[in-house]
Design brief:
Strand content: 25-35%
Structural class: alpha/beta
Radius of gyration: 12 Å
Shape: globular
Distance between the termini: 24 Å
Number of strands: 5
CATH superfamily: Glutaredoxin
CATH topology: Glutaredoxin
CATH class: Alpha Beta
Number of helices: 4
Largest sheet: 5 strands, mixed
Strand order of the largest sheet: 1-3-2-4-5
Length: 107
């Protein structure tokens, strides 16, 4: 099964791939210089593979997408947000383990 990780490259891309998604989307707000972001990346990759077509992981580099980060009030990274049917249904700031991620997605 293919890994469902997409990279968001602008507000229109966010709208079409997150807000208009028919499946839940976990949005990972991150940056290349963020150590904790790098540490959770392998777990997110594994989760994307495990979730298959049921959930998409979207990566938003806050340095390249400042407008999106500001719109969603991102003040610390990593921040993960879950969107279902275009609405934010969950949020977690900081490090997390797979059990917490699964709870966030299923919550």
């Amino acid at each position: 099964m293919a890994s469902n990780i997409i990279t968001i490259s602008g507000e229109g891309d966010f709208e079409s791939n997150v807000i208009n998604s028919e499946v839940p989307v976990v949005v990972d707000f991150w940056a290349t210089w963020c150590g904790p972001c790098k540490r959770i990346a392998p777990m997110l990759s594994a989760a994307a593979t495990d979730y298959g077509d049921d959930v998409v992981i979207a990566k938003v580099d806050v340095d390249q997408n400042r407008a999106i980060a500001m719109k969603y009030g991102i003040q610390s990274i990593p921040t993960l947000m879950v969107f279902k049917s275009g609405k934010q249904t969950g949020k977690h700031v900081g490090m997390l383990n797979r059990a917490k991620l699964d709870s966030l997605v299923n919550g």
